[in-house]
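As a warm-up, study this chain.
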Amino acid sequence: MNKEDPYGHFAEVMRGAMSTHTRQAVSGMGAVLGTMTSSGVKLDDFKHEVKDYLVAELPGTLGLPEREAAGAISGISDVANGGTTGTGRFLLQEGEVEEAVWSLGKGLKAGDRVLAMRVNGGNDIVVLCKVVSANA
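Now compare it with the structure written out below.
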């Protein structure tokens, strides 16, 4: 670049500034792995623990297949002595539970690996799910 060329110098300064601003704008965006702590989440690419974070919740209808369950039976009246207890097996038919909510936050523990997403320009962290090894 010729130092006598003010336009070339201006273009070089603008290119450098735009490159810096672009790098800053896209850093901190996207998904990142992290680890749950006792009081927050520690992201792999950020040295501080984030205490104020969001957790994804998935509302919807839960479909349940036909299944069998075993359990205790109590309080069934018996003609001979008024009540009985015991164990039994129950066949539960296929069905749906409307307005079911899967609350991820209630199942997370310190040490769990999670996938998190930065939103609102990197100002907020949303924990999307727990991640586990495919070989586990």
